[in-house]
Amino acid sequence: GAVVSQHPSWVICKSGTSVKIECRSLDFQATTMFWYRQFPKQSLMLMATSNEGSKATYEQGVEKDKFLINHASLTLSTLTVTSAHPEDSSFYICSARDRGWEGPYEQYFGPGTRLTVT
Amino acid sequence: GQNIDQPTEMTATEGAIVQINCTYQTSGFNGLFWYQQHAGEAPTFLSYNVLDGLEEKGRFSSFLSRSKGYSYLLLKELQMKDSASYLCAVRRAGGGNKLTFGTGTQLKVEL
Questions:
Q1: Nearest in space to A70 (alpha carbons), one of A109, A95, A100, A33
Q2: Which residue has the higher pLDDT, A54 or B16?
Q3: Is the confidence at residue B106, as pLDDT, over 80?
Q4: Each residue's pLDDT tens digit, B53-71
Q5: Is A107's CB within 8 Å of B106's CB?
Q6: What is the distance between the terminal CA atoms of chain A, rounded to a whole angstrom?
Q7: What pLDDT is attached to residue B53?
Q8: Which residues of A touch B (CB under 8 A)?
């Protein structure tokens, strides 16, 4: 149980275009999902917290107009990178929190999406 | 704010034991996690500590000292497949269950 999927697993796009990444909790409901970005050989940096039915909360330094997050249901959150530039190339990982579970396994990570902007 | 430090790289021999340290400074501690991450993959959960002491799970153990802001992950009977990055992450009380990750330690297991 507790599987999180991401789609696509990798994407290449041209500079200036927008890319949407989906994060789904497959067998549990996720009130909260988290979006991370990871540059090569660096650790995960939290970008934003996505809450079902409400606006996302962005970390300091993350442009909310560039990284649009929508959490329309308890099993789906989307991250749209608008007007992508080469510096946005990164590994984007989502995690989902199983609502009502306060134990150590409460965040389940998706397999990640490799974005390359040319 | 939070500050989490780990060694950048470590090398160990197959069959040996390795200890990866993590020090942290945070306002309001509510748990420390260790994750394993292979290149290009998502992190996988290894262990969780919220109280002082040692948590053992098979070949992996994790220790926490809240007063010292210190944790370590101990890997026994190292195998080649243990070559990966090991991430220490701290959950802050009142932080909405957000995790702040350390810099990660790249472990290389050699023959």
A1: A33
A2: B16
A3: yes
A4: 999 989 999 999 999 999 9
A5: no
A6: 37
A7: 97
A8: 32, 34, 41-46, 49, 57, 91, 93, 97, 104-107, 109-112, 114
Maximum Cα interatomic distance, chain A, rounded to a whole number of Å: 42
A90 CA to chain B: closest CA distance, Å? 11
> Which residues from B are below 8 Å from A when comparing CB atoms?
31, 33, 40-45, 48, 50, 87, 96-104, 106
Query: pLDDT (tens digit, 9 = 90+) per residue, A61-118?
Result: 999 999 999 988 889 999 999 999 999 999 999 999 876 656 665 688 999 999 999 9
B42: chain A residues, CB-CB within 8 Å? 93, 109-112
Strand order from edge to edge, sheet including A4-7? A4-7, A19-25, A76-81, A67-73
Residue B52 CA to residue A82 CA, distance in Å, equals 45
A10 vs A115: CA distance, rounded Å: 6
Instruction: Assign B98 a pLDDT band (cuts: 50, 70, 90).
Output: confident
Q: A31 vs A95, A101, A116, B4, B24, CA distance in Å? A: 11, 11, 29, 27, 28
Radius of gyration of chain A (CA): 14
